[in-house]
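#data-curation
PF: Archiving a pair of folding outputs for the training set. Convention for this channel: one message per protein, sequence first, C-alpha cells after, nothing in between. First:
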Amino acid sequence: MRHPSGRAPRAWRSASLVATAAALLALTTACGQEKGDQSPNGQNVGNQAPAKADGYGAGDGYGADSGAADEGAGAKAKPAGQLAVWDSKKLGKVVTDSAGFTLYRFDKDTAQPPKSNCDAACLKLWPAAPADGAKAAPGVDGSLLGEVTGVDGTKQLTIDGWPMYRYAKDTKPGDAKGQGVGGVWYAAAPDGKKASPPAAGTDPSETAPDKTAPPEAAPADPAGLSTRKDPKLGKIVVDRNGMTVYRFTKDSAWPIKSNCVGACAEKWPAVAPVDKADTKGIAKKGYMTYDRPDGGKQQTIDCWPLYTFAGDKKPGDTNGQGVGGTWYAVSPEGKAVGAPR
C-alpha cells in the first residue's frame, strides 16, 4: 500500500532494506553456513542421494535385485581420477575413485587377457570406471593400471588386468553395497584382487600401523576424517588411515578453487569426499565438496580444499608441514596450522 504522498510507508521500506541486506549477507557468507545445497561456485554440495533409476531384473547373472536401483555417482561415467585406498574394518583395503566411491570387479571377467563380460544391460547397474586420467593411489604400483575396451566402447580402467566398475546403488562415498552381490561382484583391493580383511592368525606386524606413530593416529575404527593431537602442531585433521591432512595457501575458499593440479596433484592428492556422518571432531562450517578442474571431487572444511602429502609414509608423519611456505596441516576448523598471518 502506498502512502498518500506517493512514497512507500517508512516501515515497509525498512523491512525491504533489511531483507536485501540479509540476502547479500547470505551470499557473502555461504561458505560459513552449515546448511545449504550449493557451494559458492554453484556446484551441488553435501552427500545427497541422487534420483532413482529403473532396476535391472533379478536372475540376470549380474547380481541385480528386483525393485528400483539407486543411481549413484558411479552411474555418471565420470573418470576414475586419482585413486585412493579406503581401509575398511569389514573388507580390508578397498580401492576408490577420486570421489570416494568403491570400485568393484566381476568374477565373470578375465584379467589375462583383460576382458569385460558386463553387457549393456549389466552396465546400467554396474557402470564401467573410465580409464581417462586414472592415477594409482599413493604407495601403489602405477604399472598395475591399464585399460580395456568395454562392450559399449568405453576405455575402462583395469587394475592388474581386472576391469573396474562402480555400483549404481552406492549413493555416497564409503558405500560398498555391491560387495558379494550375486556371488560374483566384489570390492577391489588396490592390487586388483578381491578386497578381504586380514585373515585370523596373520602376523600383526604385517598389518599393524608403525609402532612409532602416535596411538591416536590409527584408531581401531577410524572415521573418514577425524583429529589427533600432534606434539608440535596441536590438534590437526587426519584421514581414515591416520595420514595428516593439509591446506594449500594458494587456493581460495571464496569462490572455492584448487590451484594444485597436474604434477602438484600427484604430490598432494586431493582428499576424496567424506560424508558428514563419517567424521569425528570436524567443524561442519563450510563442509562441502568441490568439483576439481581435473574432474575429481574434493572435500573441503570451511570451504578450503583438503589434501594429503605423498611424502608422508606412515600415520603421524607431518613431512608436508611448511613445504614451500604454502602447505600447512589443517585444524578441525579448517585453519592452516602455523601459517604466517
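PF: Second:
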Amino acid sequence: MIGWADIYKVVVAMVPLYVALGLGYGSVRWWRIFTPEQCEAINRLVVYFSLPFFTFEFTVHTDPFAMNYRVIAADAISKVLTVLVLAAWAKWSSKGSYGWSITSFSLSALTNTLVVGAPLLNAMYGRWAQDLVVQLSVVQGIVWMTFLLFMLELRKAGILVTTVAATSNGGGDVVSVELQPEAKDVEENAEVASRPSFCSLMMTVWLKLALNPNFYASVLGVAWAFISNRWHFEMPSIIEGSVLIMSRSGAGLAMFSMGLFMALQEKIIACGLNLTAFGMVLRFVAGPAAMAIGAIAVGLRGDFLRVAIIVAALPQSISSFIFAREYGLHAEVLSTAVIFGTLVSLPLLVACYFALGFIN
C-alpha cells in the first residue's frame, strides 16, 4: 500500500518542474525580463535544441529488444478504441464533426510523456516505469503524431476541396440546387482535381515530421538503441558528453518555456468554462479510462496496470497545441488544455497514484 512517504517522494520529483514553470511565468508577467520576441527565441531554443537532445538521450538508453509490447499493445488498443468511438460520433451524431473528433483525439490520447512523465513515474515506481514511459513516448512521437498530422492534412484537403468548389460556382454556395448537368460536371471535375492523393498527403505529413527535431531525435535514438543493443556498441564518451550537456537542460527549459507561454496569454482559460471542462474530462477521465480498457484487455495487472493508467493521465502534449495552431483547429481549446492541465496535473496525478495503490 502507498504511504505518505511515497507521495512525498513524488511531490519532491514534481515540484522542481513547477518551480521552473513559475520562474518562466514570473519573468514575463511580474518582472518584465523578457519581451515577446525574446520569449519566441527561448521557445525556439527549447524546440530545436534542448528537447531533441533530451528525447535522444532518453531514447538511446532504452533496449528495443526488451520493450514491453503488452503495454505498447494496451496503449494502441486504447487509442484505436478512442478513434473508433470518435469516428462513430462524427458520422452518426447530429452534434458530431470531423474537426472536433480530431481535437478530442488530441485531448484524450496525446500526453506530455517525457518532460513530466519520465521524472514522475521514476519517482513513483522506479527506473523500469521510466523506461516504459520512454517506450510509449517513442511510439507516440513516431506513430500517433503521424496519425494526427495525417488527419489534420486530410481535413485541410477537405476544406480546400470545398473552397475550390465554391470558387467554381462563382463564389456563392458550394453547390446550388447540388446546378445544370454541365455545371455539375465542371463542379465534380474541379473537386476531383483538387483532392490530393493518399501519397501526396503522406508526403506532406512526413515532410512536416522531418522538420520536427523531436521526431528525428526519436528515430535516431531508436536506431542507435537497436545497433548498440544488438552488437553491444557503446556511444563514444565525447558524443555522449555532448548530448548530456544539452539534454540536462531539457526538462527545466521546457517547463520554463511553458511558463513564458502562459504569461503571454491574455488569460489561462481562453476557450470558456464549458470547453475547458470538456477538455479536462477527456484528458483526465476518458484517456485513462480507455487505457484501463486496453490494459485489462491484454492482461496487465499490478504496477504495470497502474503505470499505464497514470501515463494516460499525464498533462496535454505541447506538440498537439502546436499542430492545432498551425492548422487553425481549436487552438484555444488545446492552449487551455496545455496550460490548465499542466497546473492541475500535480494534485490530480498524486491523487491518482494514491487511489491506484488500493488496486491489486
